[in-house]
Amino acid sequence: MFVVVKIAGQQFKVQEGDTLYVPHLTASNGDNVEFNDVLLVDADGKLTLGADIKSIVKAEVVNALVQDDKVIAYKQKRRKGFRKKIGHRTQFTQIKINSIA
């Protein structure tokens, strides 16, 4: 059984026991979170989607803050002395899917 769930504007295909990285959530380690926005359910080959879905995905926060590798954006204009170097690290939350009800 798998479901497609919408978390923070992104869609994820999850099963029970999966561990995945989602955009940063305001929760601490060990907290239980629920996701109500289920888009599709596949139960033994039978697909259900739309308004007929009454499923809830329950997960546990494994690591509240995981940072991705640094991404550098560098701009330069030749012969003008203009250089700009900025960077950022995207923040994620690691969760583990406990149950799909």
UniProtKB/TrEMBL annotation:
GO molecular function: rRNA binding; structural constituent of ribosome
InterPro entries the record matches: bL21-like (IPR028909), bL21-like_sf (IPR036164), Ribosomal_bL21 (IPR001787), Ribosomal_bL21_CS (IPR018258)
A GO cellular component annotation in the UniProt record: ribosome
Superkingdom assignment: Bacteria
Pfam families: Ribosomal_L21p (PF00829)
Subunit structure: Part of the 50S ribosomal subunit. Contacts protein L20.
Role of this protein: This protein binds to 23S rRNA in the presence of protein L20.
Name this protein carries in UniProt: Large ribosomal subunit protein bL21
